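call fold(seq) -> tokens
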Amino acid sequence: MRLASAITLLVCVVSTGCDDNPNSPDTDEVTLTAQLSPANEVPPVTNADASGSGNVTVTLKVTRNSAGTITAATADFAVSLTGFLPATSVIMAHIHSGAVGVNGDVVVDTGVTAGQVVLANGAGSFTRNGVSVTPDLAQNLITNTAGFYFNVHTVLTPSGAVRGQLVRQ
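ret:
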């Protein structure tokens, strides 16, 4: 009787510590941030947008298989801007590849278009959630975060008004 009780107890302990499906995907979040400044743009901004600044938090939601390989990813963006002229219109915002001082290609677009975000008093914020990111790019953003920057474009400075290198938290 004691042997049966001991086996039952062992089975309960082992089954409690195990996932019902060991092949089920694992989802986790990785947070990237950047302080946005006109001085970080290449070349630096010198027009009226030069007084602007801001920050961005990018939350990468990645799904991994049992081997730890990223199989799917999305990004949520929370952007806050201040110091711009009243009624400044944001026309684009995205992640680019590129180290400090280097302009690069857009790799993740938030989907913001002209007229969607207007900084009525020169300040404001916006979010974009569930933006698709390829698994390979998500892995690169996680392992080589400093190789990417985020910037915001305005009507006055369509080439980019504020920029910041991403930092993994």
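Strands lie at 26-36, 53-64, 70-82, 88-97, 106-109, 117-119, 124-133, 148-154, 162-165, 167-168.
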